[in-house]
Design goal:
By secondary structure, the chain is an all-alpha fold. The chain is built from 8 helices and no strands. It has a single domain, classed as Orthogonal Bundle (Globin-like). The radius of gyration is 16 Å and the shape is globular.
């Protein structure tokens, strides 16, 4: 169960990152640009994971599990770019982080995995918006805010586990 007050923390983090109506308005643009490429960067994501024993050791179900994980990550991206960041969204994101805690994935790998997704998404924006530098800059800022907010929720799950161990 997500910790009490996680929604207030999320709202506070949005304020800290200066999340604005303009960011809200850019979500649909990000979605229309990135979703057609989602399967491409998800393929890259899992192709890279299997190359690293420290990460791939938590994948114990072989190809069937990887196929399910592809679908889970596609849902994650879809929700990220849907523009609905309510309590249910916040709790789902926290639970994803907690699942990583439960399977024993080192938090460092969560950070670099998200960084890999960020690089893929940014690369797509750089190509798709190359002739629109103002839009490119604004979309990159909004995307980074979104990803950093999600990373904060994932990290909160690790913090929760540490507090329970004390």
């Amino acid at each position: 169960m997500a910790p009490q007050g996680i929604d207030e923390k999320y709202v506070s983090l949005r304020h800290y990152l200066d999340w604005s109506v303009r960011d809200e308005d850019r979500i649909s643009q990000l979605r229309s640009i990135l979703m057609p490429y989602a399967k491409v960067f998800i393929e890259d994501f899992y192709a890279e994971i299997v190359r690293y024993p420290a990460i791939s050791r938590v994948i114990t179900g072989g190809d069937r599990q990887i196929a399910r994980l592809h679908q889970s990550l596609l849902r994650w991206v879809d929700e990220l770019l849907a523009g609905h960041y309510d309590l249910a969204y916040i709790e789902r994101r926290w639970k994803i982080g907690y699942r990583h805690v439960e399977i024993g994935l080192d938090q460092t790998y969560v950070h670099v995995a998200l960084a890999r997704l960020r690089m893929q998404m940014q690369s797509i924006l750089l190509v798709e918006l190359k002739n629109q530098p103002d839009q490119l800059g604004e979309c990159l800022i909004t995307l980074n805010k979104l990803l950093d907010l999600d990373l904060a929720l994932l990290s909160t799950a690790y913090e929760t586990e540490l507090q329970q161990l004390k």
